[in-house]
Amino acid sequence: MGVVVQNIERADQAVIDRLAACGVATVHEAQGRKGLLASYMRPIYQGARLAASAVTISAPPGDNWMLHVAIEQVKSGDILLLAPTSPCEDGYFGDLLATSAMARGCRGLVIDAGVRDVADLKTMGFPVWAKAIFAQGTVKETLGSVNVPVVCAGALVHPGDVIVADDDGVCVVRREEAEETATKAERRMAAEDEKRKRLAAGELGLDIYKMRERLAEKGLKYA
Amino acid sequence: MGVVVQNIERADQAVIDRLAACGVATVHEAQGRKGLLASYMRPIYQGARLAASAVTISAPPGDNWMLHVAIEQVKSGDILLLAPTSPCEDGYFGDLLATSAMARGCRGLVIDAGVRDVADLKTMGFPVWAKAIFAQGTVKETLGSVNVPVVCAGALVHPGDVIVADDDGVCVVRREEAEETATKAERRMAAEDEKRKRLAAGELGLDIYKMRERLAEKGLKYA
Amino acid sequence: MGVVVQNIERADQAVIDRLAACGVATVHEAQGRKGLLASYMRPIYQGARLAASAVTISAPPGDNWMLHVAIEQVKSGDILLLAPTSPCEDGYFGDLLATSAMARGCRGLVIDAGVRDVADLKTMGFPVWAKAIFAQGTVKETLGSVNVPVVCAGALVHPGDVIVADDDGVCVVRREEAEETATKAERRMAAEDEKRKRLAAGELGLDIYKMRERLAEKGLKYA
Amino acid sequence: MGVVVQNIERADQAVIDRLAACGVATVHEAQGRKGLLASYMRPIYQGARLAASAVTISAPPGDNWMLHVAIEQVKSGDILLLAPTSPCEDGYFGDLLATSAMARGCRGLVIDAGVRDVADLKTMGFPVWAKAIFAQGTVKETLGSVNVPVVCAGALVHPGDVIVADDDGVCVVRREEAEETATKAERRMAAEDEKRKRLAAGELGLDIYKMRERLAEKGLKYA
Amino acid sequence: MGVVVQNIERADQAVIDRLAACGVATVHEAQGRKGLLASYMRPIYQGARLAASAVTISAPPGDNWMLHVAIEQVKSGDILLLAPTSPCEDGYFGDLLATSAMARGCRGLVIDAGVRDVADLKTMGFPVWAKAIFAQGTVKETLGSVNVPVVCAGALVHPGDVIVADDDGVCVVRREEAEETATKAERRMAAEDEKRKRLAAGELGLDIYKMRERLAEKGLKYA
Amino acid sequence: MGVVVQNIERADQAVIDRLAACGVATVHEAQGRKGLLASYMRPIYQGARLAASAVTISAPPGDNWMLHVAIEQVKSGDILLLAPTSPCEDGYFGDLLATSAMARGCRGLVIDAGVRDVADLKTMGFPVWAKAIFAQGTVKETLGSVNVPVVCAGALVHPGDVIVADDDGVCVVRREEAEETATKAERRMAAEDEKRKRLAAGELGLDIYKMRERLAEKGLKYA
Asked: Between C and E, how many residue pairs show a Cβ–Cβ distance under 8 A?
């Protein structure tokens, strides 16, 4: 506790953009079905979709001091990601912090806790994925850390990892695996385009994926 | 497990359409306050309202193989309804399966588990009522069954039962009771129209429903 | 149980309107971070924002009789607030009751239970903050009370207290403290305007709030 | 609602006793991994283990009237099983009802709601599997039904079905399948005894169940 | 926040002892089915049963400073009762604080948050009713208040109110109503003794409470 | 997925034993208030207290195949720790697997999922900390991994890390930090012994920890 790591490595912006284009579900599959944050992490408004480098925050319950510290560490294109040290739904973040974060080029917030001023945040176009919407105020008394590894909503996140977020939720991609994952995800999307056309034309997955024989072997009976 | 029932009986389409016009709350009341699925079953987008015949699926946790099997059993105007054999929030269903289902005339999905690609599903106009929005991928390893009775979100559903769903949630109507329920629901709607006018004009429910005497008998005191 | 208090005091309408203009998060902070209802109290549609005097209802689980009684007690500009005597998600309230309430000038409903006909309520412009959306019907058999103090979603509410509600949730302001709270909230908004400009211009909270020294004293290390 | 079925069929007592001897986990497996009630159904004290015929109760939330009606229907060796018509944690049942039920030969209670007087119930040796321990009182105003099919904690239960319950939870066995399930469960227990000895002697499941080859085929790598 | 009220009134000890003898369920009923804390408030070990005067604590999430302040306010026979200002499960209290509290004559703790060292507390015979068992440590940075009214687990508690707690949970009795409630509770117990004997002898509640006629009027049908 | 790491490093057994003697709460504090698993991880029976080296398992929902694989990797004194790849409460583990694990010297199980045969496990003296007790059976179809880093109930665990578990829950200590943490924890225990005596003698924490001045500075008022 009480450490701010100032120089973190980030993935290449072009790679980050490619991941954004693929979306959460595809990226999650492409990297071997890992990296998802828990399903309770929901967007405060629908339609946002992004990928960005994580500036991570470990903060005590009900204490948002470290958000101010973290904003100074944000570079354009980053996303803030906060994990409380014990479960908490307080409203750590609102429109003033969002104003400050946007001025630094911050793209959004992922927070395993609460957020407030959500009508303002929607108007501002500042997306947040949160555990709760809750106006409960916080204090500024106890240190946490910035840019250390954290477990956020069940997923391990290192500073500089790529956060992909959309209406399906949030997925983390290890910085070292970002490029490979982007390539796999794009390949997956291409393959899906092909399948989508065949399915739309009425072909069945049972036939496209050649499932009938294996289903029969497993013992599926038609009555 | 491992059974696909191919020929199920469905309610008359005209009856199904009448139930759709009544909506969940009215149908639930009309059939004696039964048949509701749990309140955690929420639409992934607002504004959809439908009634359709259930093609039921019993599937293992984290395994969406039976959805491919079930889509072959869908007839135009049906809805898929999936109950996992143990609690699960994984994303069994996304835009590819929705494409395939729509090509078969499927009207939507009710799933006591998770769904993904929700932005795409909204764009496609494919409504889903689900327990969770979660991108978590699934496997295709273990058999389940199609068109067997299931308990879904606390409600017993037989294949061919009528599913009514809107922004209030989901209600099941036994196929054998569909016509009678539609008639009762329509009568209820007519009666409500009458009352709505009187209430809008400022009359009180206390007077319209003649509650004052019974309240006094029960001992209600005005201070 | 079984008491209806008919004459309750209300705060001055001008004060209520000033509180509405400030919103939940600001009012909550202005009165010393108290009065919030639990985070599970969510609006059934986004964008509503109001303040109103509470007509309180204590009702048994699954019994909505007292809502009819309470509507007679509503004066123009009031809001209904219902707390069940034990946890319940049933749909106590729908479009007919909303029609009646609106005819009396009721501004909305806060209910630590369920609500139904939510598509209609949205169309009517009748806002509700609820624990659940659930079509489950209720009975009219057991008395409760109207305009008695209740604990609703974890907050103590007296009849005539001011309820402030928006997309962030719901906050209660004691009637006796409404004017003082409005004044403090407005002062807070003015101060925030100033800070918002500086933050938007790129100044950091660390500097505006002079946090650097105290962070260092607490032992924050930059690596 | 409002129906009491007086003559229900029960399984043979000898079969019921055989199921009791097998326990919940074994019976659940023996009948094809079905019939479990949700994991939140927990015993109020540890160590009870039984099987009994279900006298089912469908009751409104917060209304325990039907328990009195149901006790008259109990025959020696039965178990009461209550499902509320909407989710409820109220304390429907306490030591007086248990005294009455025991006087009729009732073996216990399964309730998807709350129970109270748990210290007394433990002293009396009256086992209960419940969703909650909660002293909240109930009313006697609204009818429900006795000995109709109910969905209890996610499982469909018909009157006269066999309820098996122990520290692992609760499982329902269809009356018609009770004998076959008992036989399968006993076979399973015998097979497990054999395996238990080999495992206790240090043999690995990998070898006993010949899993190594299939794991390798699936691609398991040892590093 | 930041207030310690030093002189609170307490109920008469003899009255408190009479309430303890009646237990939670009976006291709750005797005072008109009110005053119960939420069902998630569970004892850390079974078998404790007490009544005591509440020394109340309002504390920030994750900050147990006020417990030290509160212990100085404890008089022999009191119970500590802590409500966090926002939901929290951290372990505010362990064996050291219990040692200190016991030295002051404290009878136990009711906490709408977490507790730790539960094996030690059981050995010491210091009962706790808590929302969670969680070892998570807390800080001492932010003020709360002692002996102010709080909402704890859904119930309003004033300092000096009588807390009744046993294996069924926790109930609060207003100090001013303690004597009357004790008298009603004792009367209830006496009446129950009579009924218990008749029920044990096989009489039915249907007959003792003369329910048959009213059930028939409501429409109950025997099939 | 699909990797079994066979040679993992473990902490020194003497250090592990020292951590066991300190218990969860003390170890958690000693290492800077980190490493706790979520509060829902509860022992299936009370009184167990241990420390052991983690053999970690990442397993699909509802599939316990990897437990068989993992048991071969257990050395005497180890503990199994399983994290499902998505939330699951199924009963992955029962008395047969416990028999096998005990034969290998396994000390217990930590599982962010369900366990069954809990009465047998208690009789065998095989402690389990689990999210749920649930008899639901699992399949053996899909690979997971053994001895890879996992996030279990919100905490990151590497193979060979030391797991400390008792009635307060579960805490993980990084292998590399085990010795230092043991030393700090023992120092903490010694310091607590001293304080416990003074508190038992009636001294107040306010005085022992010299809190009065700082409380006054923060503004605490005595009324």
From this structure: 25
